[in-house]
Amino acid sequence: MKDMLHFTIPGKPEYAQAVKLAVGSIAGTANFSMEAVEDLKIAVAEACKNVTCHGFPGFSNTYEIICQVEEHEITITVIDKEMEHGLEKTRKPCVDCPQEGDLSVFVMRSLVDTIEISGENSDYRSIKLVKRKW
C-alpha cells in the first residue's frame, strides 16, 4: 500500500523548517529509524534550498513537496513547477549562492539511497529522494 502526502510551500526560507518537521513526522510514522529520519530531514532541507534558491535571482514564490510512503521506502520529491522566483534574497549566503549547488547535491547523495535531479534547463526543477529501510 502506498500513502501519498502533497504540500504546497511558500518559497520563503523560513518555511524549510516546517518541511523538515513534516518529513520527519511522516518518516517516523512509517517506522523509519531515528537515524534515517534525521538523514531525511537534512536531505529534504537541502533539496528545498537547491530547488528554490540556487542559481536564481530570488526565491521561488511556491514549491511542492510530495511524499510517497511504502512499506520499505519513502520517496520525497521537491518540485518547483512555476519557476517564478519573485521573493527577494536579502541576506547572505543566499545573495551570493552558487549556481550549481554542488555541496547540497553531495550532502543529499550521502544521506539517501537514490537521488534524481530533473529539469535543470527547463520550465521546472525537481529533486527526488528515496530512502529505504534496511
Count of alpha and pi helical runs: 3
The number of domains = 1
Q: Within the largest sheet, what's the order of strands?
A: 1-3-4-7-6
Mean pLDDT: 82
Unreliable residue runs: none
Query: What is the CATH class name?
Result: Alpha Beta
**What is the H/E order?**
EHHEEEEHEE
Number of strands: 7
CATH architecture descriptor name: 2-Layer Sandwich
Structural class: alpha+beta
Strand coverage percent: 25-35%
The end-to-end distance, rounded to whole angstroms, is 18 Å
What can you tell me about this protein's structure?
The protein is α+β, with helices and mostly antiparallel strands and 134 residues long. It has one domain: Heat Shock Protein 90 (2-Layer Sandwich). It contains 3 helices and 7 strands; from the N terminus they run βααββββαββ. The chain has helices at residues 16-29, 34-52, 102-111, and strands spanning 3-10, 58-59, 62-69, 73-80, 87-88, 114-118, 125-132. It has a 5-stranded antiparallel β-sheet, covered by helices on one side. The chain has a two-stranded antiparallel ribbon with strand order 2-5. A hairpin with a 6-residue loop joins strand 6 and strand 7. Helix 1 (16-29) runs antiparallel to helix 2 and helix 2 packs antiparallel against helix 3 (102-111). It is globular, with a radius of gyration of 14 Å. The model has no long low-confidence stretch (mean pLDDT 82).
